[in-house]
Design goal:
This protein is α+β, with helices and mostly antiparallel strands. It has 24 helices and 7 strands. A hairpin with a 2-residue loop joins β4 and β5. The N and C termini lie far apart (119 Å). The model has no long low-confidence stretch (mean pLDDT 89). Bound molecules: guanosine-5'-triphosphate. Its EC number is 2.7.7.65.
């Protein structure tokens, strides 16, 4: 009789290209890789045929009595039997559990069953079992037609550990014993040591056995990010996280992070976590029994969920409080920033714009008014003989005069104008949309007010000041930029000073 050989699908696998050459060569030449029993190879043959039937599956399994008994036990277990009568034939068992679950059971039975396996393998299989149950439950909710496929892929997601163990027993012991608490740390160590992780190697092994390529690919990507995965692979990928939480030293804490993941994912929001956890709790012992592995630690799913919900609630409260604090800190900062911004534009003595802000604003108005063909006037106002006032009355009185003059021009300008202290006793007014006549009118009002009203009193004695005002208008001088316009106003003001002060002149007029 010819020995039954598995069909090697590893060449068809796109993931194979991500295996480093030395790993691929090593795997191809390794004689101690886990193999499949002949019944499993026959079942795989059936699985590959396009019209695989329940009968064909059953006939392949019947060649292995122990496998047959295990499949019957699974079909009669509480989960599959529900209240249906006990069944006695392999064909009935296949029909009840479904073709995909039959395939998964057949493939994994031989791999998992040694009860004397190293502790880390027991842990890995525990993870696989829990993941498989979780994955199938999620698939039943989200993509019922794929539940069997999802179950198989989740169950076999860690078989690459076996291949790596066969290939590099010593290296593997160093990173597998003890198994890292977080499964992702295991993958990380494998990446560092082998340049690939056990998921990719597992995909290769499954393909080598001849499992359908899309199943091998699902194993290979089982540890990848689930967020953007198609729905069936989403179930496979998320299942590992759920199993990790179930087996974690502090399951409630780990479950909280799973709950956050579920919440942030639209597909996953349909999954009822309580029912999912209860399904794991109920099915775990019987599935472990069927696959002959030591049952992993079980959880009281209700208690676990309640604890996790409590933690989530507390964390959310703490998070909200932190968020609120951060928001108020941010608001304070913004307020302070805008205060500083305003302060950086203001002359503290008069409360008017300072020189920097005047120059910046003039630049903007100049560009805008020129582009839109609008008028723009600038007036430079300098208090006459201010040094004498300072000398006569003192600097403090000089300050009061500057302050009062600031108030005076603020009263006289329009909302659209901008007045500021350019420096010392020199002031500037920017007047958008105002031509020479309007600017001159304002200048006259300033001069008139100063003539009418004392600017300050010293010991009840009124003090009067006069000003020299120079005006320049955008339309009058062919100015290339705001600086030229400003200089023109300044020069005009100096011209007034030169001809005797206390007067108004317009550039170019
Ligand atoms: N009190 C006070 N005086 C200032 C301030 N800034 C500048 N000054 C004074 O303003 C005076 C300006 O003097 P000058 O530049 O000679 O001008 P002026 O005496 O007004 O003479 P003309 O401009 O030619 O009419 C100086 O005495 C400065 O010390 C200020 O913030 N407060």
């Amino acid at each position: 009789m010819l020995a039954i050989q598995p069909t090697d699908n590893s060449q068809k696998l796109s993931l194979t290209s991500t295996l480093p050459d030395f790993i691929r060569e090593g795997l191809n030449n390794c004689f101690t890789l886990p193999t499949l029993p002949s019944a499993a190879i026959k079942v795989l043959d059936v699985a590959r045929s396009p019209n695989a039937s329940v009968k064909a599956y059953a006939e392949a399994i019947q060649t292995d009595p122990i496998l047959t008994i295990r499949l019957l036990a699974l079909a009669n277990s509480a989960y599959y039997a529900r209240s249906a009568p006990t069944i006695h034939t392999c064909q009935e068992a296949v029909a009840r559990v479904g073709l995909d679950t039959t395939l998964a059971t057949t493939l994994s039975f031989n791999l998992f069953k040694h009860k004397d396996q190293a502790a880390y393998l027991q842990q890995v299989w525990s993870r696989s079992l829990i993941a498989a149950i979780a994955a199938r439950y999620m698939a039943e909710q989200l993509c019922p037609g794929e539940a069997g496929f999802v179950f198989t892929a989740a169950l076999l997601q860690d078989i690459g550990v076996l291949a790596l163990k066969a290939l590099y027993p010593d290296d593997v012991e160093a990173i597998y014993e003890p198994l890292p608490t977080h499964h992702s740390d295991l993958s990380h160590s494998e990446q560092l040591l082998f340049g690939c992780d056990h998921a990719t190697v597992g995909a290769w092994l499954a393909a080598k056995w001849g499992v359908p390529t899309h199943l091998a690919e699902a194993i290979g990507t089982s540890h990848a990010d689930y967020a953007s995965a198609p729905i069936d692979l989403f179930c496979v990928r998320l299942s590992g996280h759920i199993a990790d939480a179930w087996l974690a030293p502090s399951p409630a804490h780990s479950l909280v992070s799973v709950m956050r993941k579920l919440k942030s994912h639209t597909k996953a929001q349909q999954i009822e976590l309580a029912a999912l956890l209860s399904t794991i709790e109920k099915q775990l012992p019987s599935l472990a029994d069927v696959l002959e592995i030591t049952a992993p630690k079980n959880q009281d799913s209700e208690e676990l969920l309640a604890e996790a919900q409590d933690l989530l609630f507390q964390q959310t409260l703490a998070l909200n409080a932190r968020l609120e604090q951060q928001q108020s800190e941010l608001a304070n900062l913004l307020e302070r920033q805008s205060e500083l911004e305003v302060r950086s534009r203001i002359d503290p003595l008069t409360g008017l714009a300072n020189r920097g802000w005047l120059e910046e604003q003039l630049g903007e108005h100049f560009a805008q008014c020129r582009e839109e063909g609008r008028a723009l006037s600038v007036a430079f106002i300098d208090l006459d003989h201010f040094k004498t006032i300072n000398d006569q009355y003192g600097h403090l009185v000089g300050d009061v005069i500057l302050e009062n003059f600031g108030k005076l021009i603020r009263r006289l300008i329009k909302d659209s104008d901008l007045a500021g202290r350019f420096g010392g006793e020199e002031f500037m007014i920017i007047m958008p949309d105002e031509d020479a006549d309007s600017a001159q009118l304002l200048a006259k009002k300033v001069a008139h007010q100063l003539a009418e009203q004392p600017i300050a009193y010293v010991e009840s004695q009124p003090i009067h000041v006069t000003v020299s005002i120079g005006i320049a208008c955008l339309s009058d001088g062919g100015f290339a930029n705001s600086r030229e316009l400003m200089n023109a106003a300044d020069q005009t003001m100096y011209f007034v000073k030169h001809i005797g002060r206390c007067g108004i002149a317009i550039y170019g007029h």
